[in-house]
Amino acid sequence: MDTRLLEMLDEREIVGLAVRYASALDQKDWQLLHSVFAPDGVLMAGALGEVRGPKAIGTAICRVLDGLTTQHLNGNHYVLVEGDRARHTCYLQAQHVRSGMPGYNWFTIAGTYEDDVIRKPEGWRIQRRTLTITWTNGNRDAHTPPTHL
């Protein structure tokens, strides 16, 4: 197969990781989320700090999203493939809605994901994902997990 075609397929699969990540969060599908990360994958995300391993990442995100309806959107993808490793960046906007709150019941986060990606036998996986928040809008309390966690 042509080298450029293989590179395009790699790029498409890597962008697909970002789509699967967003879908997993919105659907609260923790098995799907686990499939996005390498076994020793790392997530660096704001107040969560550094979380290691797909199971721990899923648990941490589950706590943050408890009780929320969300929609995570990604765009402006950039992928640089170098053999079995790649760099991926994209913008994100994530809408978080907590029903039953007085006043504004939503909180929006916008920023950038920066990923180190690695090719595994089962396909491309995120080795390290870093979220950098650029701006927020709305009621921050709508994003705050309930105190019973």
Task: Describe the fold and architecture.
With 149 residues, this protein is an alpha+beta fold. The protein has a single domain, classed as Roll (Nuclear Transport Factor 2, Chain: A). It has a 6-stranded mixed β-sheet with strand order 2-1-6-5-4-3, with helices on one face. A hairpin with an 8-residue loop joins strand 4 and strand 5. The longest helix is centred in the first third of the chain and has 25 residues. It starts with a helix and ends in an 11-residue tail after the last strand. 26% of the residues are buried.
Task: Provide a concise account of the structure shown.
28% of the residues lie in helices and 48% in strands. The chain is built from 3 helices and 6 strands.
Can you lay out the helices and strands and say which pair or pack?
Layout: H1 3-27, H2 30-34, E1 37-45, E2 49-52, H3 54-65, E3 69-82, E4 85-97, E5 106-120, E6 123-138
Parallel strand pairs: 1-6
Antiparallel strand pairs: 1-2, 3-4, 4-5, 5-6
Features of the shown structure:
single chain; 149 residues; alpha+beta; Nuclear Transport Factor 2, Chain: A; six-stranded mixed sheet; 28% helix
Number of strands: 6
Report low-confidence residues grouped into runs of 5 or more. none
The geometry reads as elongated
Any idea what the radius of gyration is?
16 Å
Number of domains: 1
Give helix % range: 25-40%
**What's the main sheet like?**
6 strands, mixed
At the third CATH level, what is the topology name?
A: Nuclear Transport Factor 2, Chain: A
Structural class, please?
alpha+beta
Counted by DSSP, the helix tally is 3
The rounded distance between the terminal residues' Cα atoms is 51 Å
N-to-C order of helices and strands: HHEEHEEEE
Strand fraction: over 45%
Mean pLDDT: 93
Sheet with most strands: strand arrangement: 2-1-6-5-4-3
The CATH class assignment is Alpha Beta
Task: Based on the coordinates given, report the CATH architecture.
Answer: Roll
